Amino acid sequence: MKLKLFIIAFIATMLSFFQTIKAQEVPKRNAIFVEVYGTGLFHSVNYDMRFDQISNGLGTRIGIGYTAIDGVRVFTLPIAFNYLIGKKRNFLELGVGGTGIFLNQGNIGSPASGLDISSSTAIVHGMLGYRRVSASGFLLRAGITPLFNGSEFIPFVPQASLGFAF
Asked: What value, to the nearest 5°, has the Cα angle with vertex 131 and ends 53 and 93?
């Protein structure tokens, strides 16, 4: 009788223990998302990660963007440090970084001339936004991105992102 009670108590304890482990969420420290406007200027694909084993705190991101406007190809490379304040699924995102901008327009004039015009520059940007990560990993970001290029300051560039956190 005592052995049966011990076995039942042991099984109940183990089931409770495994349910507790199962209920604990693994922090979603990494994310991949598509951003419209913001640090990539037009649109960009980005990878974001936290430095610690938690879903908030200090992290970094890097992305790549491309668009073509009137024959000019524009490549962007946004890089930033960011800090997430919040718990579980809702975060305030603060950040600062820079974006490399690479312009290229080929074959100016006649196609036989082969004249290429290219240039590059960089801008400094900030980030102030809201980040929502669902339990399934769906990521939603929205906010403003102030831009500064050395001579001009644009305080309110909107940004929105959709992606997946893991």
From this structure: 75
Angle at 84 between CA 123 and CA 30, to 5 degrees: 85
- Give the count of alpha carbons within 13 A of 42, CB side only: 11
The pTM (predicted TM-score) of the whole model is 0.77
Q: Where are the beta strands (DSSP E) in the chain?
A: 30-37, 43-50, 57-69, 72-87, 90-105, 117-133, 138-148, 153-165
Nearest-CA neighbor of 97 among 142, 14, 41? 41
| Cα separation, 40 vs 46, whole angstroms | 9
Question: What's the CA gap between 161 and 127, in Å, rounded?
Answer: 13
Q: How far apart are the first and last CA of the chain?
A: 48
pLDDT at 113: 47
Percent pLDDT > 90 in the chain is 60
